[in-house]
């Protein structure tokens, strides 16, 4: 099932399948090490469109709600 990152539950695992943004967004997100095909785990989210904390390759990142909406993840 394909979800955006904001729809994932805390502790849920998935694989990044697609980015919905333009080339600038994709470059920015890939510079953080967030790439298609990577395993991703959602650590936490904040109330009312706050930052989303994720883990990729044992590194944790906090990204904004808008950016998280543009990342599509296949959840098992």
Key terms for this structure?
76 residues, alpha+beta, six-stranded antiparallel β-sheet, 2 helices, 18% helix, 42% strand
Protein model, in words:
The chain is α+β, with helices and mostly antiparallel strands and 76 residues long. Helices cover 18% and strands 42% of the residues. The chain has helices at 23-31, 65-69, and strands spanning 2-4, 13-19, 39-45, 52-56, 59-63, 71-75. The radius of gyration is 11 Å and the shape is globular. The protein starts with a strand and ends with a strand. The mean pLDDT is 93.
Short description:
This protein is 18% helix and 42% strand. The protein is an alpha+beta fold and 76 residues long. A six-stranded antiparallel beta sheet has the order 1-6-2-3-4-5.
